[in-house]
Amino acid sequence: STYSSKVFRVTFFTLAASLAVPLLGVTILLDCPIDPQPISLKEPPLLTGVLEPNIKLRKAERLWENQLYGPESIANIGDVLFTGTADGKIIKIEDGEIQTIARIGHGPCGTREDEPTCGRPLGIRVGPNNTLFVADAYYGLYEVDPDTGETKMLVSTKTLIEGQKLSFVNDLTVTRDGRKIYFTDSSSKWQRRDYLFLVMEGTDDGRHLLEYDTVTKEVKVLMVGLRFPNGVQLSPAEDFVLVQETTMARIRRYYVSGLMKGGADMFVENMPGLPDNIRLSSSGGYWVAMSAVRHNPGFSLLDFLSEKPWIKKMIFKLLSQETVTNFVPKYSLVVELTETGSYRRSFHDPNGVMVAYVSEAHEHNGYLYLGSFRSPYICRLNLQHV
Question: Which of the four CATH numbers 2.60.40.10, 2.120.10.30, 3.40.710.10, 3.30.565.10 does domain 48-382 have?
Answer without folding.
Answer: 2.120.10.30
